[in-house]
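In this section we walk through a basic example: taking a raw amino acid sequence and producing a predicted 3D structure, encoded as discrete structure tokens. The instruction is simple. Fold the sequence below.
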Amino acid sequence: MIAHGVDILDVGGESTRPGSAPVSLQEEMDRVLPVVEALACRFEVAISVDTSCAPVMRDALSRGAVMINDVRALRRPGALDAVADAGATVCLMHMQGEPQFMQQAPSYADVVQDVLEFLLQRAEVCIGCGVAPDRIIIDPGFGFGKSLGQNLAIFRHLPEFVATGFPVLVGVSRKSMIGGITGRAVDGRLAGSLALAALAVSQGVAIVRVHDVAQTRDAVDVISAVFKETTE
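The resulting token sequence is shown next.
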């Protein structure tokens, strides 16, 4: 992944895909911490940890991680303090409900405004607790308690999220929204994933979370070249 041009490695020990079951704190720590430590010792690359649990955050940050990617936006006990105390970067994601049930008829008054307001409110809380504004990233949470139509509505309005001034992260690689559009199984969603990554970057998104690094790197580089101001 590093050879293919990845900028951040995201390490997670608990699945948060729709319908997934939680794992124990000890099992999550046993899965995550040795990997973080090994990566930090061997490679010069930013390490993110995908977790909602404060003990995992604290230990991972002490072992070389520099970023926390939290699907619950630091709402679990101790999570906010763990990030603030370490001076770490955090990605705040929106999720309606919990992974086991979040795709059972998700409902919003206005999905774009509801998600945007939630993320801005969480960012304000983080800043108030000592997290530097330039260390906050926001993620609309595609597929986390959202229907296909709701996901597409958010995608159409990504410039509104970018306009907040916080870097925006988009994670749609291989997700069911691509299957819903194309009818393809997970292993046939590369083209759809690249299309959405390119579209996200063209709208000002700062980070795309992907599985297929080399192919996405090429797509992003091409899009970036098209939109780059140059006189050459």
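Looking at the output, two observations stand out. The mean pLDDT is 93. The chain has nine helices and seven strands. In the next section we compare this with other chains.
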